[in-house]
Amino acid sequence: MNVAVVGHVEWVEFAPVERVPLPGEIAQAGATWEEAGGGGAVAALQLARLAGSATLYTALGDDDLGRLAKQELEAQGVRVVPAWRAQPQRRGFVFIDAEGERTITVIGPKHSPRADDPLPWEELDEVDAVYYTARDVTALRQARRARVLVATARELPTLREGGVELDALVHSGKDPGERYHEGSIQPPPRLVVTTRGGRGGTYTPRGGKTATFPAVQRPGPRVDDYGAGDCFAAGLTYGLVRERTVEDALALASACGAAATTGPGVHVGYPPG
Known about the structure:
Elements: E1 3-7, E2 10-16, E3 33-37, H1 39-51, E4 54-61, H2 64-75, E5 78-85, E6 91-96, E7 102-107, E8 129-133, H3 137-143, E9 148-152, H4 156-162, E10 168-172, E11 191-195, E12 201-205, E13 211-213, H5 228-242, H6 246-260
Parallel strand pairs: 1-4, 1-8, 2-6, 4-5, 8-9, 9-10, 10-11
Antiparallel strand pairs: 2-3, 6-7, 11-12, 12-13
């Protein structure tokens, strides 16, 4: 399968703590680490695990961190096709508490690819499935060239303005920044999936009834929830082309999301190993 992501990258520093500090407190972190993250990078890594390779159409800061992010992702099987920006690479800081919950601070504007960037957008005509997690209407319209297009509700303003038909929209029933309300995008998505973490979720085909799907048991203890949602969305993107039914695609997506919680940071996904 030929799969791709149109999305953003952040260079992320992770700090494990017992709990996120209250105002005025000082938290003692365990061993910290840094790696390329952000929704686009996480989803591309998961798609590469499923398909053997994936392409990430993105924008990166033309600095040491931007180049390091490209190098790191390519070492993990992701073909990175970047537009280079004069602004510094966007960064992130993530607390991981003792329960595995992540609290994220981003630093700098999101670098999103644009249709007028010198990227090989025509390649998308031959792509089976794209996951979109960027912030540019023209890039969204380029992403629609793929056979299947899945997007995150984190970018609702862009999706509203874009006016393209989505094969699936994924949003979180837990995170306020990812809420979707019926009718807020035209044309409406062909499928709306609502995730509820360890409680599974629901899915609603356009014009059909809402049904539930179960959670998948984690293949190990909960360590770190960072990236679980984007791994779920990547699994759904792949599954809508590869699996026989929507239910099968959701089962694969749930396995991807569950596996992402069982290790630290970004480079954890499905299949394990």
